[in-house]
Amino acid sequence: MSTLPIIATENLSRAYPMGTATVQALRAVTLAINAGEFVALMGSSGSGKSTLLHLLGCLETPTAGSYQLEGREVSTLSKDERARLRNERIGFIFQNFNLLPRLSALENVALPLLYRRDAGEAHHRASQALRRVGLAERAEHRPNALSGGERQRVAIARALVAQPAILLADEPTGNLDSVTGGEIMALLMELSHEGSTILMVTHDAQIAAHAHRCLRLRDGQLVTEAA
Predict the structure, then answer these.
(1) Cα–Cα 20 to 30 A to 48, which of 126, 140, 141, 159?
(2) Rounded to an integer, what distance in angstroms lies between the CA atom of residue 149 and that of residue 141?
(3) Mean pLDDT, contiguous 10-residue spans, the chain (227 residues)
(4) Contact assessment for residue 208 and residue 202, using Cβ atoms and an 8 Å cutoff
(5) CATH assignment of the domain containing 197
């Protein structure tokens, strides 16, 4: 496992105006995630998990502090530069899958590549990604013809298709029963063993136990780090 950090933040903070007041959603978070690590992020509702995930995913910009992705300072990038970085180097896995209902599994997986590759290459790469998650035979099915576990596998394939630097997983088992959730965790563990870098938000301590280490947020601050 490389010791070079894929993600490094220093005093990362995010505040939101609410009327005449200001809410500090994230307070001076300093952390590093190395290539190949599987890190769980835990905390109660309102602790800042979503805010941190949005900042690391280049969906928002910090109020203060530094964020480097693969050594590149993200906080100073323009909106278009962040969108390009997000599309090329970050894979998202959502609790609600976020699949487009009118598209097949193959077309959903190919979407991140269609912005920068021809359709033929994008569909070839999407087919490979679906095969990797065990859904090659379901490529032409639309989301409503797939089980919850299959839809999450499609979402994982979509996150993998661009070969990102890091996978950001937001409660990836939250909408699944325990058996199906266990299958998804087994797949994430396989990806981790193959060298994928994963940051996973979860409320479930048993799910978090699969990670190499666990970060905990409370009131916007990083309060403990457990092995």
Answers:
(1) 159
(2) 14
(3) 80 92 93 95 91 94 94 90 92 93 96 78 93 95 96 95 93 91 93 94 91 94 71
(4) yes
(5) 3.40.50.300
Residue 89 main-chain phi, psi, to 5 deg: -125, -5
Torsion angle defined by CA atoms of residues 212, 216, 222 and 227, in that order, rounded to the nearest 10 degrees: -30
Q: Which residue has the tokens 């933040």?
A: 9
Q: With 0.70 as the threshold, say if the pTM is over it.
A: yes
Alpha-carbon distance of 32 to 227, in angstroms, equals 14
Helix or strand run (H / E) with residue 179: helix 178-193
- Sheet of 198-201, strands arranged across: 90-93, 166-170, 198-201, 38-42, 213-218, 221-226
Distance of CA 66 to the CA centre of its chain: 20
Q: Are 140 and 132 in contact (CB under 8 A)?
A: no
Report the candidate in 15, 12, 40, 44 with the shortest Cα–Cα distance to residue 28: 12
Query: Which pair of tokens denotes residue 9?
Result: 């933040």
Give me 219's structure tokens.
């009131």
User: With contact defined as beta carbons under 8 Å apart, do 102 and 142 qualify?
Assistant: yes
Number of domains in the chain: 1
Please provide the DSSP assignment of 75-140 as one string.
TT--HHHHHHHHHHHEEEE-TT----TTS-HHHHHHHHHHTTS-HHHHHHHHHHHHHHTT-GGGTT
CA–CA separation, 207 and 202 (whole Å): 7
